[in-house]
Specification:
alpha/beta, 3-stranded parallel beta sheet
Amino acid sequence: MLGGKVGKMIDKDGDAFLFGQIKEKLEDSDILFINLEMLFSDNNPQFLLHAHESFRVSDKRIETLKFLGADIVNIGTNHIKDFGNKTIERTIKILDSSGFKHIGGGMNESASRRPAIIHKNGFRLGFLGYCKIGEYSASGKIPGAAPLIPEKICKDITNIRKNVDFVVLSLHWGMELSEYPSPEQVKMAHKFIDVGTDIILGHHPHILQGVEEYKNGVIFYSLGNFIFDNSAGKVFYKGKWKERNESVITRIKFTREGEIDYSLLPIYQTDDYRLRIASDKRAKEITERVEKLSEVILSSSLKEYFYSEGVESTIKRELKTYILRLKREKHVFLFWMIRNFKFRYLKIILKFLLSTIKNRIKKNERERHGLSK
């Protein structure tokens, strides 16, 4: 995220102040992938109701991507249309003129699903990007983010697989501030690996989730925030503050034998938005957290964790947000809420309630069993 206070800090102190220490660790990479959460909008007017001035990113921030040494950028996020379709067109032109590859969004659905291929050191890497479905999705001739529709994604993977050595899939998915992917996400990820994906890079939850090695592929369900103004937006939420300011850079190595190796570099964001490499103690804490989260994904308890912890925190945050926005924006927000309501929300809430009831029954049984002893 290069808007809000992050953008102001760059204007004030420069890219080196925020990214100087991290840049040293990025310079030896052959290809650097970055998710661009908010697009270049400058003076474009607000388009989506949830958009906020702190989400606005100056065109000047293209210099930040150059400073970091980025090669390919994902633009397919739920913020792609915050400031209208012209923002998408503007961002694509800026990226193209600066020599950056990009995926995940476009001026129509076909363009949004278009892959990017990078040739490096004798390898051909194919990149594809998609985003969970919403009012920001591309459809037909409508601009937006490439929609996360499994059947279409599998088709795109199959089409590009024959032209590249490795396929990297960027997915803006999952539930915000949940440390666990849903069981449906895991099934989806496995399906994408089955049809030819090698790496899945997940983002959107804003905190770290686990990593899974499945068959010959690796799934990073959520890499957390790289840099982010966590106070941005219409409602300031302080939940999981530490987790939102800690992240990892994943370093992936491809071999000519078709093998994949990876490592995690733990990093964190300071109060003045500088990125720092985590010290031994903090690095160990972050790494161990990822390991524990990864173990849950492989266990039979994922569903229980997802609904009892991931969904619960999200419901609390959303209720607080909706109540505050309803007070401020009144009927305007009410109309937006009704128009954008999705029945899958009810399904998730019902599953959460059932999971809560089951967990309480299990707890009571364990307590009774302990008392009987």
